[in-house]
Amino acid sequence: MLQIAPSGYWRHAAHQRNPQLRCARAKRDDALVPQIERVWQANKRVYGADKVWKQMNREGVGIARCTVERLMKRLGLQGVRRGKVIRTTVSDMKTPYPLDRVNRIFKADRPNQLWVSDFTYVSTWQGWLYVAFVIDVYARRIVGWRVSSSMHTDFVLDALEQALYDRQPQRDGALIHHSDRGSQYVSIRYSERLAQAGIEPSVGSKGDGMDSPVCLREIGALVFMGVGIRSSSNARSPR
């Protein structure tokens, strides 16, 4: 049997009968809990305490991060967490690479001047899926993307094809396509498609594509907000 002081019991009973007798912190918690649940639900249950806190402050709700964390823990709410690390950049040291025309300066003065390509992975109910994407640095948006259950060249080519169809760049060599040294991006098929489209290839070091702040922000939005990834119809079968 749990030993409690009689005064503690009677205080609890009084609070149950009249919630207005509770302390200011308890009353404020009651007001904040629905808002925390709303933000978490509205963002597809992927937000953790930090993002819920930032979103509530953007909405003008003054709240401390520790309060969000405490109440989310009480409610059993948590954000999506990264799983194990998967190696996505597999370089072939025997393959000649194009020049690095970007040198980590991810800036553009007009549309279709610089595209950055890469792919990452995400854990779903069906297992690991890979997400390839092409970003127009000037527009700061994803112009082509594809989901696959394997890391073959086909799915990064599909993302490129979508970008070409969406943006219709001129075939004058003014557009630079930058990626890391992953074998998918320096493959013969991918290189030939860039040449056919009149696009200048640029290859940086390992993981270079993800070094762009624009790239990090956009792929984060695509993957962790679950845009289309949870649908199995969007994923290519392994070849």
Descriptive account of the structure:
The chain is α/β, with parallel strands linked by helices and 239 residues long. The chain has 2 domains: 6-75, no CATH class; 114-236, Ribonuclease H-like superfamily/Ribonuclease H (Nucleotidyltransferase, domain 5, 2-Layer Sandwich), CATH 3.30.420.10. The chain is 37% helix and 16% strand. The chain is built from 7 helices and 6 strands. The protein has helices at 6-17, 24-42, 49-58, 65-75, 153-167, 188-196, 213-224; strands at 114-124, 127-136, 141-148, 176-179, 200-203, 235-236. Strands 5-4-1-2-3-6 form a 6-stranded mixed beta sheet, with helices on both faces. A hairpin with a 4-residue loop joins β2 (127-136) and β3 (141-148). α2 crosses α4 and α3 packs across α4. It is elongated. The protein starts with 5 loop residues before the first helix and ends with a strand. Residues 85-89 and 227-239 have low confidence and may be disordered.
Can you summarize this structure?
The protein has helices at 6-17, 24-42, 49-58, 65-75, 153-167, 188-196, 213-224; strands at 114-124, 127-136, 141-148, 176-179, 200-203, 235-236. The chain is an alpha/beta fold.
The whole-angstrom Rg is: 25 Å
The count of DSSP E runs of length 2 or more, i.e. the number of strands, is: 6
CATH architecture of the largest domain: 2-Layer Sandwich
* Strand proportion: 15-25%
Oligomer: single chain
Q: Uncertain regions: pLDDT < 50 for 5+ in a row?
A: 85-89, 227-239
CATH-defined superfamily of the largest domain: Ribonuclease H-like superfamily/Ribonuclease H
Number of helices: 7
Largest sheet: 6 strands, mixed
CATH class designation of the largest domain: Alpha Beta
CATH topology (level 3) name of the largest domain: Nucleotidyltransferase, domain 5
State the helical fraction. Answer: 25-40%
Order of helices and strands: HHHHEEEHEHEHE
- The total domain count is 2
Shape: elongated
Mean pLDDT: 78
Our measurement of the CA-to-CA distance between the termini, rounded to an integer number of angstroms, reads 63 Å
How would you write the strand order of the largest sheet? 5-4-1-2-3-6
Helix-strand category: alpha/beta
